[in-house]
Amino acid sequence: MSTPATPGVTVNGDRLPLTGVAAHTTALDWLRGRGLTGAKEGCAEGECGACSVMVARPGTTSPTEWTSVNACLVPVAALDGQEVVTSEGLGSSSDLHPVQQELAVRGGSQCGYCTPGFVCSLAAEFYRPGRVATDEACDHEHGPNGVDLHALSGNLCRCTGYRPIRDAAFALGSPEDGDALAARQQQPPPEPRPTRIAVDGAEFVRPETLTETLALLTERPEAQIVAGSTDWGVEVNLRGRRAPLVVAVDRLPELRELSFRTDYVEVGAALTLTEIERKLNGRIPLLAELFPQFASRLIRNSATIGGNIGTASPIGDAPPALLALDADVVLASPRGERVVALADYFTGYRETVRAADELIRGVRLPLPLAPLVGFHKIAKRRFDDISSVAVGYALEITDGAVVQARIGLGGVAATPLRAVATEDALVGRPWTEETVRRAAAVLAEEGTPMDDHRASASYRSAMLGQSLLRLFHTHPQTHPGRQEVPA
């Protein structure tokens, strides 16, 4: 591993050193400790957005994109060498940024606690490449100026109500000529660089290559692997978890590729959900249904596909959809690579077949795709919530009969799982309401659902059966054959 440069983060244009910073220190605590108190801690688990800041990240359609993230979750060491803008860096009381100005004049702030977070999330949307005004009819979630209010789906306000905030968002124009943050997007993003920070017996390490990473995992099997830190950050904040070694893999080039092959699409494990959504641009319809329902834009800006699989949570949203897509997991180690079917990957509650010296390099989605798909998430809130039950469907129907069915389930067992009995109840039978009702009764018996604070076992079972009926009534007709995916 090459010798790391002196750690530091560029904040609002000034480079600040990371001196004496513990490996578990969050960006939020570090920023506030430096006097930048605009960002607040509301929930410490990525649900309220009071801590939102902007980070310069590689763009999809521009060299750099200002991306809003939860500063309460990301370790500040993970921002070594990166560029951050806080609400203080956007404007001042005497020189307001356009986002701050619109929120002020339209009554979008009362107590002000959540306002800086709204400002940073909305500013990231203000600078989003491709945001253009439209003459088409808009709804309450999309403005005529091209603003997508889902950019604020991870920000909560308890005082003002959302109409004035929405009005401020929809009143925004485009960045003016000479806007420094807009101009910054046309320059390359900060290069990831190797990092090693050791304080009080704990280390944060960002290896330079995959080979170095795997060697480190072999040497230190107890290492905690982090990418977006949307899961580990909660463990640190709410449960006081600490690790002697944290290894960051989010910027490894080998984990950040998305490629189209003849018989599969491979998605790099360290790509964020937002990056995958934009790169695929709807070409895998089941994932296109999943993304808007996965937490919030703030979380999707950091959360990775590999991380959602790697945590092995039984209520992760991605595994049910990936199980329906018959996905494989590519595991890398010093011994080489192996490919494991996702259906065989989970072995118990938060347990998998991954060895301590292995790393999820990517996910493979076989082609062609099944034509009838659906993703149903049952939760207490429409967005920004954890599912009680999640179901992914991928069916092929020919001449009115089901010839193939794959159904992935989450929230009804200790692991995500395939609804094999229900699949058997569908395949070879006509796609009719009678068939579906019989299969729905089987689906309601799948898994081993339990009672908890999110839902009862009986409710979860009932929702499984209703989900299949919903799919049928949404797609009662037969569909064309299996779908190729254009590269």
UniProtKB/TrEMBL annotation:
It comes from the Bacteria. One of its GO terms (molecular function) is xanthine dehydrogenase activity. Its EC number is 1.17.1.4. Keywords: FAD, Flavoprotein, Iron, Metal-binding, Oxidoreductase. InterPro entries: 2Fe-2S-bd, 2Fe-2S-bd_dom_sf, 2Fe-2S_ferredoxin-like_sf, 2Fe-2S_ferredoxin-type, 2Fe2S_fd_BS, Beta-grasp_dom_sf, CO_DH_flav_C, CO_DH_flav_C_dom_sf. Pfam families: CO_deh_flav_C, FAD_binding_5, Fer2, Fer2_2. PROSITE patterns: 2FE2S_FER_1, 2FE2S_FER_2, FAD_PCMH. This is Xanthine dehydrogenase small subunit. It comes from Nocardioides panzhihuensis. The lineage of its organism: Bacteria, Bacillati, Actinomycetota, Actinomycetes, Propionibacteriales.
